[in-house]
Write a structure and sequence with these properties.
Number of helices: 5
Oligomer: single chain
Distance between the termini: 46 Å
Mean pLDDT: 79
Shape: rod-shaped
Structural class: mainly alpha
Length: 114
């Protein structure tokens, strides 16, 4: 008999990861029909929605995107410094630099709203 946590993991993999019944049956050393029964029971008892890892997966993705935005902002700051060095201007109020800064800030703001 397979314990509850193993069954739940199989259900998660079937619903969230869309793994095949055959693959899961082999992994957990049960028949495909057994895995199917576990999934059906879970769906009946929990209204058909898999909530177990869905929020966790979304949360991971959001955190990864936030980290990417932070990283891109750091790169942006570096590029602006290089632009200032190349143009000889370090004052962000100079038209050439302020235009690039403004456009970049808008692009970053647009990306962070997504």
């Amino acid at each position: 008999m397979v314990n509850y946590s193993i069954r739940l993991q199989a259900v998660r993999e079937r619903i969230n990861d869309r793994r095949s019944l055959e693959e899961l049956a082999q992994k957990y050393d049960v028949s495909p029909s057994t895995v199917s029964r576990w999934v059906s029971k879970y769906v009946r008892e929990h209204g058909g929605a898999m909530v177990l890892d869905a929020n966790t997966n979304l949360e991971k993705e959001v955190n990864a995107l936030r980290a990417e935005v932070r990283n891109l902002r750091k790169h942006n700051e570096t590029l602006l410094k290089v632009l200032g060095l190349l143009t000889g201007e370090t004052d962000p109020n100079i038209p050439e630099v302020s235009e690039v800064v403004h456009d970049t800030q808008e692009a970053v703001a647009d990306d962070s709203e997504v």
